[in-house]
Write a structure and sequence with these properties.
Layout: H1 5-9, E1 22-33, E2 39-48, E3 54-60, E4 66-70, H2 79-82, E5 88-91, E6 95-100, E7 103-108, E8 112-119, H3 122-133, H4 136-139, H5 142-156, E9 164-166, E10 172-190, E11 193-194, E12 206-207, E13 210-211, E14 217-225
Parallel strand pairs: 4-5
Antiparallel strand pairs: 1-2, 1-14, 2-3, 3-4, 6-7, 7-8, 8-10, 9-10, 10-11, 10-14, 12-13
């Protein structure tokens, strides 16, 4: 792998080919748990087949209530697939600012400031090398994705992983995380209050069959979903 996360993320992706699914490409923190019971994730999808590119922030509070904030309407962003599992959806201004080659800040004015520092482990380097070498046909192969899911969880120390499955709204999904980094340090403030140290939840959380990692993972790649008809 060449380049820092900032340099790679700075190149807006091309929309993946294919007419059999709704398609997205970009980067984000797949998920970051906090020992307080809060959980955060974000997506920057610079390319989307259902509308303009967008940012989204996912937040689960300690009461296990999920809210997704999106920079575009919910029907053109993540709630299109996850909405039935959410307590609320909100349209918000979301900024992603790279403060260094391995550091970024995600902000929602008057709501969230989330500082993130990235690193790399032997496992993320190995999986990035594998992801870059795999042809596109294998990324569509259910058997290959199932094997990768089983290997990725223990290798990355993130708990259970599913690269394909069903969303809360009933559509199938397929994720192709081709480049990976660890989240080595993170601090988040919601409504001005520090939500505490990073660390795994008491029990791994999921939305539908999409399991969210038990440690912070940053990925660059593509996501595919069954056409929702909305």
């Amino acid at each position: 792998m060449t380049g820092s996360p900032r340099s790679i993320a700075g190149v807006e992706p091309a929309l993946p080919r294919g007419a059999d699914a709704e398609r997205f490409a970009g980067y984000g923190v797949m998920g970051q748990p906090f020992t307080s019971g809060h959980y955060l994730a974000f997506r920057h999808f610079g390319a989307s087949s259902v509308g303009p590119g967008y940012e989204s922030v996912w937040h689960r509070n300690p009461a296990e209530e999920w809210v997704i904030y999106s920079s575009v309407a919910p029907e053109m962003s993540c709630p299109r697939y996850y909405g039935s599992a959410l307590t609320d959806t909100r349209v918000a201004d979301i900024s992603v600012t790279w403060t260094g080659p391995f550091a970024l800040t995600v902000e929602i004015p008057d709501r969230l400031v989330w500082d993130i520092e990235l690193g790399q482990s032997a496992a993320t380097a190995a999986m990035t090398g594998l992801g870059g070498a795999m042809p596109s046909a294998l990324w569509r192969n259910p058997a290959v994705l199932s094997v990768m899911s089983r290997v990725a969880g223990p290798a990355l120390g993130v708990g259970r992983v599913r690269l394909r499955g069903t969303t809360p709204n009933g559509q199938w999904f397929r994720t192709n995380p081709r480049l990976l980094w660890t989240v080595d340090r993170t601090v988040a403030r919601i409504d001005g209050v520090d939500i505490g140290p990073a660390g795994p939840l008491a029990g791994q959380t999921r939305l539908g069959e999409f399991w969210l990692p038990q440690r912070g993972i940053f990925a660059v790649g593509q996501a595919y979903f069954e056409a929702s008809g909305r």
